[in-house]
Design a protein that fits this description.
Three copies of one chain form a homotrimer.
Chain A (H helix, E strand, L loop, with lengths): L11 H16 L10 E6 L5 H12 L3 E5 L8 E2 L12 E2 H10 L3 E5 L7 H6 L1 H7 L6 E3 L7 H13 L7 E7 L8 H12 L3 E5 L8 H14 L2 E5 L2 H5 L4 E6 L9 H9 L19 E3 L12 H4 L6 H21 L4
Parallel strand pairs in A: 1-2, 1-5, 3-4, 5-6, 7-8, 7-10, 8-9, 10-11
């Protein structure tokens, strides 16, 4: 394995193999496997789970990590090609990225969407630019429209919850005061498709996921014996569901238009998911969310504190799947 | 040992045993004892000694640590139960804490007093709420009215200074421009009581330590053959003292009342401890302070730079006692 | 080796020996050499390369590091002797520094020039004050007029580029919107002199390096068979050059005078180094810069992205030379 940028870069068998390694590393600690190996972490955006779990993962395998946060202790990084750097940023990514890469055995990069132009964000051009500057193995810590570490952790969680491979997976939009990126819905949609699930994307009008992402997921679903549908009716969508994966995201009809997005989302402030949404679901239907979640805004306390919630298990699973990713990237395929 | 939250949770023998382990780890390095083990550190408030010494302690024992500072690189954490999270905080402690706990083998939490309501701070309700969300071994890195790592380091320092077990220990208030928490005076008072010392709490009117803390210390003193007194006369209090432990704290008569506290403390701006305070003490009487200390405001240069000062030794001792705590928490009682 | 504060503290042979160790550590990893050893890093100023590469260096050798940034998670540190600490800073360096030193096996300190008074900055008084408070091995991570880690990395880079020992080395001033410190030009000038090179310091009027630094370098050059010249004519200076080492620095004629410096540097905004500067240099003449560099302000894209640029190699070399420094400081001179 040379990099970990998108779950779609791997075959279903390769993913299952990674998950098997994650389970093995949970059972059998390998506290010296990565002795002397160094992971670099570049955070262009905030983080709790990713920041903590990647450091912990290296520590458990006997390696170490360093984290760099431009603008907080380190120089602001300019990303514009050809910029005349006479204002805030002291360093350009064309130097900063290869330099960080040269200090470590693998580099993780977090770079959220700009949220201005949908085509541009879908192209992952900004992330690709950074990635192209580094020649050590790269890990996507969340890019404009991807979050493969989260998706892999979620797959492991679905397995542990014994959710059937062809079970019904509802990816539901929820309200949030701000237009959040498409990274998690995109990554999770693809993961559920690859796993062979019957996926329903549930969202209000104006919040449909971009056709590029839907088409990519449909191809993965077709290959794995699953299917992708869309709905804007919570009750109907959740009927017989095995999982409701809740996530907030920006309006795609008003992408990059702050006022238009705000007006569109304000009409759906009642999309705070609560137990009533599950009226037509079966009792074992689980609630998933990648966290952080705004309680009583996106999801009600009663769900997060109740038996449906699998959110802590999802977050925990970041650790073993990332240990598996690091093990593969830094040890080769042997182990 | 399952957690380290309060020195009062341990018997005198258990404390002596921890101190013996600390001395052993100073003499005989164990650079692989905690290989693959991970300590999480959550700082809701600033730190120098705690941040540096816990990372160093894990490093010396072959393990690793990660530090999370909400609001600086990581999401702001909401602590209010039932909050409708539509403003600043992106994540609730009900998710954030168990998630961090799930990434590590032990978690340290720093959460200062709110400083609004004395009963509430004395109850440690906010710290207990966080602690109740985590199921790995917990370490108190300073809570509303406790700082057991500091207290344990101070006990070790007293032993090294050959201060008699039943010596005279003066815990003295000093001036500070702001109302600082009661955590250190509370923890140190209890430590001196458990050690069997004859303790005098020296403070101006309006700054008496809460009766709950005094009573708890009196019980510990009684069990160990010591005693607790109070005074508001520096000269008399320091007569024949073996140790003057200086600390700034808020007015308890005006707790949570900013204007009242400010007026009360302004009257005692002359409580900047200097050599004259020691006129009736013997020549070997030592000056202790947990640091950070405002020079020439709380304590005069002449003392901090003179032979009485034991403050650097106190700070250094954070390292070996915390190595002992980590060793016990993460290795069991064997070693 | 007891400390690493100035390349001038070492003989040419000692430097060559350190560089040989750096090359050996590149070829033959020693992932347990510094097991259980801890490096403390105190950053009074921002950093990317130093912050990342020192953590990586400890990790590769099996040790660990902690970083403290006063004012960001840790207390602001007062540096003034005798200060009455009644305002922002909660802790004095007279406590903070020895405490940090007591937690680690070696301590690195970054403290930029004040930029107010040239004599004061040249005296390194502020750095010396901090250094005098610590009794573990110290590493200069950039002080007022020194940056020995950068200089050592640059020497290694010159060797790798096969630049002749007595080749022509042009240290050239470049434009920057702000008056940057003299640390890198001072350290690099001395390094090139110690290496025996024929050095030309190229700078506009008003930006001559202080005579103290020039004289120190001249003595080193004389001992190593090199020479030091000055010029304010880019074309002439670069004739037959082997290396153009570009760096921005403050006006020494207007040192500490913000308006005077701004006016002086504004007249030389055309000192943005580009390919035309190399018209009289030979084809193999390399471009060096310590980074971060403001593209198209100090150096043109065409150079940084072209074949002359050695800047990434310079930055990478921080890692192996610092591994060598740490190895020597923490393991003695054996191996």
């Amino acid at each position: 394995m040379r990099q970990f940028l998108d779950l779609a870069d791997f075959s279903r068998e390769q993913v299952l193999d990674l998950l098997a390694l994650a389970r093995r590393l949970e059972r059998e600690p390998q506290p010296t496997a990565l002795a002397g190996r160094v992971l670099g972490l570049l955070f262009m955006n905030p983080s709790l789970r990713t920041l903590a779990s990647f450091q912990a993962a290296m520590g458990r395998l006997g390696g170490s990590a360093f984290a760099i946060t431009p603008g907080s202790g380190s120089w602001q990084l300019e990303t514009q090609h050809g910029a005349i750097m006479d204002s805030g940023a002291a360093e350009h990514v064309r130097e900063g990225l290869p330099v960080l890469g040269s200090y470590c055995d693998a580099l993780g990069i977090r770079l959220f969407a700009e949220g201005k132009d949908l085509e541009s964000d879908l192209s992952e051009q900004r992330f690709r630019t950074l990635a192209g500057l580094v020649d050590v193995p790269l890990i996507n810590l969340e890019s404009a429209v991807n979050h493969p570490c989260q998706a892999l952790a979620d797959w492991k969680t679905l397995d542990e919850l014994a959710v059937p491979a062809h079970g019904k997976f509802v990816l539901s939009w929820a309200y949030h005061p701000r237009p959040l990126p498409l990274a998690v819905p995109a990554a999770v949609l693809h993961m559920a498709a690859m796993r062979g699930m019957r996926v329903t994307v549930l969202r209000p009008e104006g919040f449909a996921l971009p056709s590029e992402l839907m088409d990519k997921a449909r191809r993965a679903a077709a290959a794995a014996g699953g299917a992708i549908e869309e709905s804007c009716e919570p009750h109907a969508a959740l009927a017989d569901a095995d999982v409701a994966y809740v996530k907030e995201w920006s309006s795609t009809a008003h992408y990059g238009d702050a006022a238009g997005d705000a007006a569109a989302r304000a009409r759906h402030a009642d999309w705070c998911v609560n137990e009533q949404w599950f009226a037509a679901a079966h009792g074992g239907c689980r609630l998933m969310h990648c966290l952080p979640v705004r309680r009583n805004v996106a999801v009600a306390d009663e769900l997060l504190d109740g038996p449906r919630a699998a959110v802590l298990r999802q977050a925990y699973n970041r650790l073993p799947v990332q240990m598996a990713i690091l093990h593969r990237l830094l040890q080769g395929t042997t182990q």
